[in-house]
């Protein structure tokens, strides 16, 4: 594991919505480069770019037609090299989003496979089974997509092959071997540009029907061993939602996520403002103003996971991402989100800030389906576009018009908040600086729980952190926490620790 990752503060950039350098209304790599001064000022030291490879954009770049070329709407390969070099001078590493499980149906690999019955880079069957799609070429039969029909699944084999079902090839068949080699070729190419690592999309799903993910884990361990030999210091972050499996499989860190079996992230933030998952999590989120949630669900899963992976890797706790509602959504306001930001930046996990969450950008409902943003996984659907709106740099209408901007005249923006010492932006900047200056507040320090409830109180070395997401005020009997370093709505006297609604504080003994 790369030592530098332990001190990383991740910042996820959706490039088409971040900053536009050429006036075409779409964010690009030049725009990202133009904002490196801002990111360095904020304290970010690691940037993760959503996919910027050549794509027909049926799924906003997660349908890749050429893994070795930057899509022209973002610039060129030279622009990416320039961005990486400039970021390095700002003390910022760059990670790319890697989509290994499927390509676009316009990728030359798939076009060739759809016209060659002897090509097994994709999963082909003679009969149309569940989810299989008709061949678009001269090849007879049907192919298996991963998500949208335009995303044919690459063939990495099946954990349980079956000769009676010839499309269920073993993992060491010719097609899967070619695809495993392609993973190395693609990573090797971009690491030659100085890329510090990759966030791997849907990492556990490459090999189909793989009980216990045994073969999947072996695939990633083999790739990890090659990376450590060829490009030591490179990091792999997984979209797996189970660090207990992802880290032993060779990933340096894995995300707690909104979806899947894990309830850790949902129990903190899922407020049902955008879609309802009551059938999986009947209790309200802990960071709801009503104060009826429980931090215990998160703590139990975090403790089990942290004990399992030890010092071999990290858990990443994001504010949000391009596939989920933002932290500020529905009834959760930017002011209410402040206690969550304090928690995220003082807990012994890697923090990942989704662009705009540092200023309290709201999830925007009512947008059109754009580049595959609408998912029908819930009864009323979920439009991911609401979390992909333009970064709000100042009070003017954003130049980036990939999606409509928030029309509210009171929408937050970077310029205004930089001038306001009490803004969310300056709070995040202070928290990052405090975390960097005090290893006890980062991944290397331990944590002890003082009180699990409202407020939530925990100690990190000489620091005591208190957060109260609830609207109601609370007074709790705890040992004198020391001097207030940073906070709002907290105080201590003979009666105990007083915390107002939405209050938070960081004390040093």
From TrEMBL:
GO molecular function, one term: alpha-amylase activity
UniProt GO BP: oligosaccharide catabolic process
Domain Glycosyl hydrolase family 13 catalytic: 12-435
A Pfam family assignment: Alpha-amylase
Domain of life from the UniProt record: Bacteria
Matching SMART domains: Aamy
PANTHER family tied to this protein: ALPHA-AMYLASE FAMILY MEMBER, NEUTRAL AND BASIC AMINO ACID TRANSPORT PROTEIN RBAT
Family: Belongs to the glycosyl hydrolase 13 family.
Signal peptide coordinates: none
Protein's recorded name: Oligo-1,6-glucosidase
């Amino acid at each position: 594991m790369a030592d530098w990752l332990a001190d990383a503060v991740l910042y996820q950039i959706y490039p088409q919505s971040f900053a536009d350098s050429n006036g075409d209304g779409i964010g690009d790599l030049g725009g990202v480069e133009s904002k490196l001064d801002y990111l360095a000022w904020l304290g970010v030291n690691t940037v993760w770019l959503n996919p910027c490879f050549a794509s027909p954009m049926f799924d906003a770049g997660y349908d890749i037609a050429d893994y070795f070329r930057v899509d022209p709407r973002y610039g060129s390969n030279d622009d990416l090299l320039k961005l990486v070099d400039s970021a390095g001078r700002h003390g910022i590493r760059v990670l790319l989003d890697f989509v290994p499980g499927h390509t676009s149906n316009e990728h030359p690999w798939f076009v060739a496979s759809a016209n060659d019955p002897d090509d097994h880079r994709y999963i082909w069957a003679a009969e149309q089974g569940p989810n299989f799609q008709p061949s678009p070429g001269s090849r007879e039969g049907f192919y298996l997509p991963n998500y949208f029909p335009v995303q044919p699944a690459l063939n990495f084999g099946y954990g349980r092959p079956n000769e009676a079902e010839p499309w269920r090839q073993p993992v060491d068949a010719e097609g899967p071997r070619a695809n495993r080699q392609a993973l190395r070729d693609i990573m090797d190419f971009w690491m030659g540009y100085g890329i510090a690592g990759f966030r791997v999309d849907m990492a556990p799903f490459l090999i189909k029907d793989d009980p216990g993910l045994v073969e999947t884990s072996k695939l990633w361990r083999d790739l990890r061993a090659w990376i450590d030999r060829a490009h030591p210091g490179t990091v792999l972050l997984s979209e797996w939602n189970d660090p207990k499996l992802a880290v032993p499989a060779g990933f340096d860190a894995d995300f707690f996520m909104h979806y899947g079996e894990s309830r850790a992230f949902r129990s903190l933030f899922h407020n049902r403002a955008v879609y309802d998952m009551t059938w999986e999590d009947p209790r309200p989120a802990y960071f709801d103003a009503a104060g009826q949630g429980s931090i215990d669900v998160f703590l139990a899963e975090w403790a089990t996971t942290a004990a399992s992976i030890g010092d071999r890797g990290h858990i990443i706790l994001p504010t949000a991402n391009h596939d989920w509602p933002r932290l500020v959504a529905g009834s959760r306001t930017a002011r209410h989100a402040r206690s969550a930001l304090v928690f995220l930046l003082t807990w012994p996990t890697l923090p990942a800030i989704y662009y705009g969450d540092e200023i309290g950008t709201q999830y925007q409902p009512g947008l059109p389906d754009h580049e595959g943003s609408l998912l029908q996984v819930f009864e009323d659907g979920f439009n991911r576009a609401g979390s992909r709106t333009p970064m709000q740099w100042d009070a003017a209408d954003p130049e980036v018009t990939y999606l409509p901007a928030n029309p509210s005249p009171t929408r937050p923006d970077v310029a205004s908040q930089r001038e306001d010492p009490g803004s969310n932006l300056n709070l995040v900047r202070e928290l990052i600086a405090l975390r960097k200056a005090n290893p006890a507040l980062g991944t290397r320090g331990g944590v002890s729980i003082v009180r699990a409830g409202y407020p939530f109180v925990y100690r990190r070395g000489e620091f005591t952190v208190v957060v109260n997401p609830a609207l109601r005020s609370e007074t709790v009997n705890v040992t004198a926490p020391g001097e207030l370093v940073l906070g709002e709505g907290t105080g201590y006297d003979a009666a105990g620790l007083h915390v107002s609604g939405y209050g938070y504080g960081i004390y040093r003994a």
